[in-house]
Amino acid sequence: MLYWLTELSDGGDVFNLFRYITFRAGGAFFTALIFGFIFGRPLINLLRRRQGKGQPIREDGPASHILEKAGTPTMGGALILGAVVVSTALWARPDNPFIWIVMFVTISFGLIGFSDDYQKVSKQSTRGTSGKLRFALGLVVAAIAAWWAASVHPDDLAWRLALPVFKNTLINLGIFFVPFAMIVIVGAANAVNLTDGLDGLAVMPVMIAAGALGVISYAVGRFDFSEYLGVQYVPGTGELLIFTAGLIGGGLGFLWYNAPPAAVFMGDTGSLALGGALGAIAVATKHEIVLSIIGGLFVVEAMSVIIQVLYYKKTGKRVFLMAPIHHHFEHLGWKEPQIVIRFWIISLILALIGLATLKIR
Known about the structure:
Blueprint lengths: L20 H31 L11 H6 L8 H15 L5 H27 L7 H22 L7 E3 L7 E3 L4 H19 L7 H18 L2 H7 L10 H19 L8 H18 L3 H7 L1 H20 L9 H7 L4 H21 L5
């Protein structure tokens, strides 16, 4: 919205600043951060009044969770979503299709997560909306986003998979690009959802991953940068830096209240939306494989659940004391802040490795 102020510029005044993506990204960050600080406490108070007993706690989970986390309201992810939507709407170019693709995925998955959270708190049960229904709806949203992204990619990139490290290497997936992108988006959404099990555990790795993807978006959206780095040039993706900046600002505003002991949980409203957003950005920038590195922590969390379920069905035994894997470390005696901070460190390392793929060619 504010981008149109450039029409008032003669090229040498303050309005000219709105032409620069980096300036608008800074504006989006501070807008989202202030939004979080202003509306955080009122939202938490509203959720407490509406939800009563708060989010139901798994009875088969760590015993400390039943004692320490009972009564904490959920759906706090709505604070991040509000911050991201408002900041992006204000600072991004409204004529950029990639912004609308990522916003579509984020809001849609947020609504799917909201439905699940609402069912849980209204019924006071850990069982919310049917998993099959949530998965099916996620696939529909991802399919629309994948087709949309392929339709706005340049002709030489559309329907193709870019390989990291290997310069100018593209694999033409044809129509199979759509199911591949669907797996990326839905997989990212559910992986972040599985990671969201401890206070502050998911939101910081999401912000770290968003920061890395923001840098990638800006780099591949500039011809000079992409040519220098030897990566595919995807015109228009630089605007996604504004979205990721808003996500980081909103995430910090949320973390202010989610830091241990959490005053509010993100819930599926936030985790599904933010994971879906990361997947959509990766698809838009042709960095789907790099996302598995940057978001490696989420991959490990999801794989721990898959391995646990498959192994238990086959042998009747467990690989981990409890899945997802962060609960395994809880059962080993690690304190919650230890797990959270160590996982943050791992996320930062993986993000840096993912960013290194931009130069390793």
